[in-house]
């Protein structure tokens, strides 16, 4: 791809990638001084690539994505996208706020998922480049997707010389509303040379949300039991739990002051990903229903278990469960959350 340098900014390059609905779609690259880089798209504020070395120094892309813009237009699995206004499911596609019921778009049976048909993953964002940070900005109008309030939303990406990608979310509203944002990257630390079953995972959690067959929380918080990840392989945990895949919300230990959420490792390449976040939990999705119409980076359409999502976020369906932490955002209330992704090589499932 032919990237152009941002003026007076050696770390950030870009290209006019496509035109959609009369607006320009850009693909950006932030490269650090080691040669590692991330790529971003203003369609869906999408995280399109993360290229970092393995233990032998060979660079490889560790998330799923597409070489063509058409791949993202036809995608229905939220590959790499920013998710909003509300990540995950809201039951019956409705919630009550101050005795007023708000009806949302039903895009998951009788429920809404990841913001409905008006979700952020299909929006074209404005952008601003400040030093080595890229800020994507969106004004979500009152009533969009059924959600109340004009919402001014910003997601910022920066990439350090230590191969750490920092994602920062901020938002403001002019009317009381509910919000929950995350990134929906599908990780594969093998650089797509194999699926995700041999990856090792550690999650800083001993409890999960009980869920029904539609992946909706029942409201109960239960011990993780056989779903506890302490560094074992994905396939090992699935076999012990007698499950084909996972779509499970893990609750962090509130005493975890270092904010470490999870560590994902791939022993064959030596790559590890340490995740830290300000959110209270994460959704682990092993990509059971993953598919794509067009080929991904490896030249063939994606299939189940080609990648897995570790989606740091607030509790799913929290507007309908009084015992869950509140996801309400009020006018004048600053909203700030972060997800940090630190890539390294070395031992499997490091402790820090």
In short:
With 352 residues, the chain is mostly beta strands. Helices cover 4% and strands 44% of the residues. The model is unreliable at 347-352 (pLDDT under 50).
Describe the protein:
- With 352 residues, the protein is mainly beta.
- The chain is 4% helix and 44% strand.
- The chain has helices at 69-73, 234-241, and strands spanning 4-6, 9-20, 23-31, 37-41, 46-53, 59-61, 82-83, 89-90, 94-97, 100-103, 112-113, 126-130, 133-140, 151-159, 164-173, 177-178, 182-183, 200-203, 205-211, 217-223, 230-233, 247-252, 260-266, 271-277, 281-285, 309-313, 328-329, 335-345.
Question: Which features does this protein show?
Answer:
352 residues; mainly beta; nine-stranded antiparallel β-sheet; disordered C terminus
Strand order of the largest sheet: 12-13-14-15-28-24-23-18-21
Q: State the helical fraction.
A: under 10%
Mind telling me the C-alpha Rg?
Answer: 19 Å
Query: Average pLDDT across residues?
Result: 95
* Major sheet summary line: 9 strands, antiparallel
- Helices, by number, come to 2
Low-confidence stretches: 347-352
The computed structural class is mainly beta
SS elements, strand count = 28
The fraction of residues assigned to DSSP E strands is 35-45%
What order do the helices and strands follow?
EEEEEEHEEEEEEEEEEEEEEEHEEEEEEE
Oligomer: single chain
Between the first and last Cα atoms, what is the distance in angstroms? 36 Å
**What is the global morphology?**
globular
Reconstruct the topology from this structure.
Blueprint lengths: L3 E3 L2 E12 L2 E9 L5 E5 L4 E8 L5 E3 L7 H5 L8 E2 L5 E2 L3 E4 L2 E4 L8 E2 L12 E5 L2 E8 L10 E9 L4 E10 L3 E2 L3 E2 L16 E4 L1 E7 L5 E7 L6 E4 H8 L5 E6 L7 E7 L4 E7 L3 E5 L23 E5 L14 E2 L5 E11 L7
Antiparallel strand pairs: 1-2, 2-3, 3-4, 4-5, 5-6, 7-17, 8-11, 9-10, 12-13, 13-14, 14-15, 15-28, 16-27, 18-21, 18-23, 19-20, 19-22, 22-25, 23-24, 24-28, 25-26
């Amino acid at each position: 791809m032919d990237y152009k340098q941002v003026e007076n900014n050696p770390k950030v390059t870009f290209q006019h990638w496509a035109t959609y609905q009369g607006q320009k779609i850009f693909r950006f690259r932030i490269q650090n001084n080691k040669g590692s880089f991330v790529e971003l798209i203003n369609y869906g504020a999408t995280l399109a690539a993360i290229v970092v070395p393995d233990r032998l120094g060979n660079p490889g892309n560790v998330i799923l994505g597409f070489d063509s813009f058409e791949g993202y237009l036809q995608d229905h699995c939220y590959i790499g996208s920013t998710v909003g206004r509300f990540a995950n499911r809201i039951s019956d596609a409705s919630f009550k706020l101050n005795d007023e019921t708000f009806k949302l778009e039903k895009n998951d049976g009788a429920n809404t998922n990841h913001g409905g048909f008006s979700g952020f993953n299909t929006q074209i964002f404005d952008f601003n480049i400040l030093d080595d940070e890229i800020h994507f900005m969106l004004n979500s109008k009152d009533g969009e997707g059924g959600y109340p309030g004009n919402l001014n939303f910003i997601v910022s990406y920066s990439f350090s010389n230590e191969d750490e990608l920092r994602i920062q979310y901020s938002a403001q509203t002019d009317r009381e509303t509910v919000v929950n944002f995350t990134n929906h990257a599908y990780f594969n630390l093998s650089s797509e040379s194999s699926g995700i079953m041999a990856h090792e995972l550690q999650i800083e959690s001993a409890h999960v949300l009980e869920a029904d067959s539609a992946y909706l929380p029942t409201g109960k918080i239960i011990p993780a039991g056989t779903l506890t990840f302490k560094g074992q392989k994905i396939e090992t945990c699935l076999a012990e739990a007698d499950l084909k895949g996972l779509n499970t919300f893990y609750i962090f230990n509130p005493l975890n002051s270092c904010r470490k959420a999870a560590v994902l490792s791939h022993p064959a390449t030596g790559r590890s990903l340490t995740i830290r976040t300000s959110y209270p939990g994460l959704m682990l999705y092993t990509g059971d229903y993953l598919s794509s119409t067009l080929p991904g980076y490896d030249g063939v359409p994606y299939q189940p278990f080609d990648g897995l999502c570790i989606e740091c976020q607030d509790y799913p369906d929290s507007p309908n469960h009084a015992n869950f932490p509140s996801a309400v955002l009020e006018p004048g209330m600053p909203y700030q959350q972060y997800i940090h992704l630190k890539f390294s090589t070395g031992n499997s499932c490091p402790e820090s």
